[in-house]
Specification:
Blueprint (H helix, E strand, L loop, with lengths): L8 H39 L6 H21 L4 H19 L1
Helix pairs in contact: 1-2
């Protein structure tokens, strides 16, 4: 029978830090590509005196906003996630003490 040591709190923190950094880097890349592509589309549309470039920018912007909300608010360790987690911990501790 092999014995596998339980992961330490430091290991768990390191994994969470890597996950959060990777997710945030992904959002930064997404935002950069969004800006570059939509700037190009705006220049093309302006050159031909057309206003169609606003439509892809708005649609893609909504996707970028949702991606940002998932990364910055709901990701484990994010502010919203942290608040909800703390609220649940408090409720469970209250239940266990009664």
């Amino acid at each position: 029978m092999s014995h596998h040591p339980l992961p330490s709190a430091q290991d768990a923190t390191e994994r969470l830090a890597h996950k959060r950094a990777k997710a945030k880097l992904g959002w930064y890349i997404h935002a950069t590509v969004y800006l570059l592509v939509n700037l190009f589309l705006a220049l093309v549309a302006a050159r031909h005196a057309q206003g169609w470039a606003a439509f892809p920018a708005l649609g893609w912007g909504l996707g970028l906003l949702i991606h940002g909300a998932a990364v910055w608010l709901a990701l484990p360790g994010g502010s919203l996630y942290g608040q909800l987690l703390e609220r649940e911990r408090t409720a469970l501790q209250r239940q266990q003490s009664h």
